[in-house]
Write a structure and sequence with these properties.
Layout lengths: L17 H19 L8 H28 L16 E3 L34 E3 H4 L4 E6 L4 H14 L6 E7 L3 H11 L5 E4 L3 H5 L7 E5 L5 E5 L5 H10 L4
Parallel strand pairs: 3-4, 4-5
Antiparallel strand pairs: 1-2, 3-6, 6-7
Length: 245
């Protein structure tokens, strides 16, 4: 075992999810209300709790969109066509590895992005974008909780066996490792699913719409990006374009 098991990934300290932060703010509001009002019937936390759960998905996308706007000059359409796929290394949902994604692109960048460039990471239980791009790649980025986003990955699962030349994969952002792992088991996804708990990969890929799907040629050159759910016919057409069908 290495001295720092997760050092090659991003900073490993636990971070609260957007839903958790919202829940804490909501509890603080409740406390202030209790202090400012006379005693009366107890509040109904269940209603507030369900509101928190229902809005969490929207908050994840909002935070991702704001961060992407701040860091990419307003572009929210995924990686640049014709350019190499941005590098990342992240824990696989099916592994016991837990930590933030490494999004360091080159030596000399801040170690807050990762200890070494992402595609140099060799940590058991992790996956890198470069490893995925050894074959023509179909990479979808989603957040948990939206039927249309999870449905896109269900379609990939159904198509994967018929297209062995393609690498299907996904990044699930804004959820804990345990939550993403449970999602993978629930749906029976067998292709690689990476965990991006702090939205680092979402920001790197300039994502604000779920699902966002990137198609690359073998080696990682971006062929196209879709920012809406795709049908089987549309995915097949893109597979032909990247030489995987």
């Amino acid at each position: 075992m290495t001295e720092d098991r997760f050092g090659d990934l991003g900073p490993s300290e636990e971070r609260k999810s957007p839903a958790q932060r919202l829940a804490e703010l909501d509890e603080a509001d409740l406390a202030r209300e209790r202090e400012s009002k006379p005693a009366g019937p107890p509040p109904r936390p269940a209603g507030r709790y369900m509101w928190v759960v229902g809005i969490a998905f929207v908050i994840v996308l909002a935070i991702a969109g704001i961060n992407a706007l701040r860091h990419s000059g307003g572009g929210l359409h995924g990686p640049t066509v014709g350019r190499p796929l941005p590098q990342f290394a992240a824990p696989l949902a099916t592994s016991s590895l837990d930590g933030d994604a490494n999004v360091k692109q080159k030596a000399g960048q801040s170690n807050q992005l990762g200890k070494r460039p992402a595609c140099q990471v060799r940590v058991p239980g992790s996956i890198t974008s470069c490893a995925l791009a050894r074959r023509p790649l179909v990479l979808s980025l989603i957040v948990p909780g939206a039927t249309k986003c999870e449905g896109q990955l269900d379609l990939f699962q159904r198509m994967a066996a018929a297209h062995p030349r393609a690498q299907f994969a996904a990044v699930v952002s804004g959820g804990s490792h345990a939550k993403v792992a449970a999602l993978v088991r629930q749906h029976g996804w067998t292709f690689p699913v990476a965990v991006d708990r702090d939205l680092s990969v979402f920001n790197l890929y300039r994502v604000a719409v779920c699902p966002t799907t990137v198609f690359t040629f073998r080696g990682g050159k971006v062929e196209s990006t879709s920012i809406h759910p795709l049908t089987q016919a549309q995915v097949t057409a893109r597979l032909r374009a990247i030489g995987a069908a």
